[in-house]
Fold:
Amino acid sequence: MPLTAEALAERLQDTLGDLIVDTTVALGEVTIEVAAENLLAAALQLRDATALRFDTLIDLCGIDYLTYGDGQSTRFTDKPRLASVIHLLSVRRNHRVRVRTFATDASMPVVPSVHTIWPAANWFERECFDLYGIIFDGHPDLRRILSDYGFIGHPFRKDFPISGHVEMRYDPEQRRVIYQPVTIPPREVTPRVTREEGYGAGHV
Structure:
């Protein structure tokens, strides 16, 4: 029988100790925060410790916390902007955990690669690099995987323009594909709301 989220959080704390910066239990799921310099040590424990046995990496993604604090949420306003998040599953123990690691420098975001611990991380880390610009130190082949070779910027960052920086087209005179500045004029799209006359009348 799988552990409750609270029991798993206690087991993680007992096993990893000071390697954990913060633990959150919400909606039946456990999230731990690990500093970048401790990620590889924590990852080995997560995979190999008898009480944990997180043998399968099921996902790795990036998060941009640029706009946190603009609204009601202030949970991450004192944290760095970019983070890598690993989702792990223990097939043997039937439990899951989410591991968040912040890149301390937004201008050069670097976190360790975990591909030697969970080989499935290889392409996930390339995707995260492509879309968020997070550099995975130690990755054997860190290059774009979804966008084009000449793509500029990282499209999942919250300050990336909706229209992009450049556009690509075929030039019949040069007989090749060329890149040029975006020709779409910037505009603000406001949703149009249409209501019938008397909408809601007679209803409390």
In short: The chain has a mean pLDDT of 89. The longest strand covers residues 56-64. Residues 53 and 92 are 7 Å apart (CA to CA). Residues 5-16 form the longest helix (12 residues).
